[in-house]
Amino acid sequence: MIIAELSNSASCEKKYYLQQNLYDYLGKKYKKFYFINTHNIFNKKKLKIDYKFFKKKNIIHFSPKNITELNNFLKKNKIFLINNLSFKFEHILFYYLTSKKNIFQISFFNIYALSNYKAENWLHVNFTQKIKFLFTKKLSLIFHRILIILRIVDPIDLLCIAQKNVFKEYSNIKNKRIFLIKKYKNIKNTSVKLPLNQNKKRQSKKYITFIDTGIFHKDISKRGHIINDEMVNNYLLFLKTYLNNLSKIFKKEVIVCLHPSSNFKIYKKTLNKFKLFKYKTEKYILNSFMVLFHESTAIFSAIFLKKKIISLKSNTLGDYLNTRRLFYVNRFSFVEHDIEKNFKIKKKKLINDLNLKIKNYEKSIRNSYFTNKDSLPIEKIIDKEIEKFSKKLI
Predict the structure, then answer these.
(1) Residues 30 and 74 both lie in one domain
(2) β-strands 156-161, 181-186: how paired?
(3) In the chain, at which residue ranges do the beta strands (DSSP E only) sit?
(4) Could you give the angle at which helices 378-393 and 20-29 cross, rounded to 10 degrees?
(5) CA torsion sign, 86 to 88 to 90 to 96?
(6) Residues 176 and 295 in one domain
(7) 123 Cβ neighbours under 8 A, 6+ residues apart
(8) Could you point out which of 47, 80, 127, 298 has its C-alpha 20 to 30 Å from the C-alpha of 59?
(9) 198 with 184, same domain?
(10) What value does the CA radius of gyration of the chain take, rounded to a whole number of Å?
(11) What is the rounded distance in angstroms from the CA atom of residue 115 to the CA atom of residue 387?
(12) CATH number at residue 23
């Protein structure tokens, strides 16, 4: 049996990094883990993989050149498939190809992603984008549902959900995904990087770590907020001033953890006094005295490690990103600083405020996510489902 994930990603490195420990766990336990990436099938710009990034030899990449090659692979193998593809029109063909008796499909959300359906797809987009949303998401859901009713496409066998409110909505028979999923299961709030809880004794408080959001990310431009060169320069200058100030007050080295989509050279030009890294966010969060961010799921590692956290506001990044930033602020009551305003940071008061906020982390997690003993982490659920599926194939 092959254990694999089906994706349509332009960056294998980013895809792997986001759930690295889960993929490494599956690769080690089941000897191999396959990434089936459909990017090359419909994109002229072919996928380039930096194999030096993937240190584990049991992580296998399969990038079919065409539909026939993909279909042949799916037909000839017994596959336990992680399928987190959206239900957009462009993915319906892939759902059709994976509708085979020799394939079990499991799906799970980006475990900690905080979002709001209306804010993501309606509030911060223009009229054209709203029409596109209705066509690509609403109509595609209806069409996908019809294909399932007609038994042309199989529904996902199991959807795993960590957030309580999302589970309640999706497990309700009246919800919009009826017929798209066979079963729903709640899962324990598993961290994106599994070893963090095992490494608490090894953590330090050496750095002030800034988690970059990615000012050139397509999610921002899709919502109609175009950041030009002048805005980029202004944003980075504001950020530089704020980080320098904080570094002097607390006498700590600043580390900037760049988003995978960020241009290293552009950031380095202004933030030249700081060390900049990609794909090392977890390492520096673990060794941080304080963590700063706009919006990022990586912040959950800092929450579980009970790090001091400040939410940074910047009008330059636009209303959409600020709305997403407020999802985190409202849920965890983080201290907020506007990097574009001149204000005096009072060291003692800030430390007291940050320590007070840390006490709220656990309560917020408990209220929002499944934490009880009956809820298993995603890797344990996958183990159980693989065992069940193996028995059916005999």
Answers:
(1) yes
(2) parallel
(3) 2-7, 33-37, 59-62, 79-83, 103-108, 156-161, 181-186, 207-211, 253-258, 275-278, 288-293, 308-313, 335-338
(4) 40
(5) positive
(6) no
(7) 323
(8) 298
(9) no
(10) 22
(11) 33
(12) 3.40.50
Nearest C-alpha neighbor of 42 from the set 25, 67, 24, 70:
67
DSSP three-state, residue 249: helix
Same domain, 260 and 217: yes
In the numeric block, the tokens 């193998």 are attached to 77
In this structure, the answer to whether residues 184 and 39 fall within a common structural domain is: yes
Number of domains making up the chain: 2
Q: What is the pTM of this model?
A: 0.84
Per-residue pLDDT tens digits for 256-283:
999 988 999 999 999 999 999 999 998 9
Query: In sequence order, what are the residues at sequence separation of 6 or more whose Cβ sits closer than 8 angstroms to the Cβ of residue 361?
Result: 303, 304, 306, 332
Residues 224 and 160 in one domain: no
CATH of the domain at 223: 3.40.50.2000
Single-letter amino acid code for the residue at 55: K
Residues sharing a CB contact under 8 Å with residue 347, sequence separation 6 or more, in sequence order: 249, 250
Span 313-339, pLDDT tens digits: 999 988 888 888 998 999 999 999 999
**CA-CA distance, 170 to 277, in Å (whole number)?**
38
CA dist., res. 108 & res. 184, Å (int): 10
Residues 386, 80 contacting (CB under 8 angstroms): yes
DSSP string, 111-154: TT----HHIIIIITS-HHHHHHHIIIIIIHHHHHHHHHHTTSSP
Q: Which amino acid is at 296?
A: S
pLDDT tens digits along 155-165: 999 998 888 88
Note whether 135 and 236 are same-domain residues: no
- The torsion angles phi and psi of 201, rounded to 5 degrees, stand at -70, -20
Its domain, for residue 15, covers 2-191+373-393
232 and 252 co-located in one domain: yes
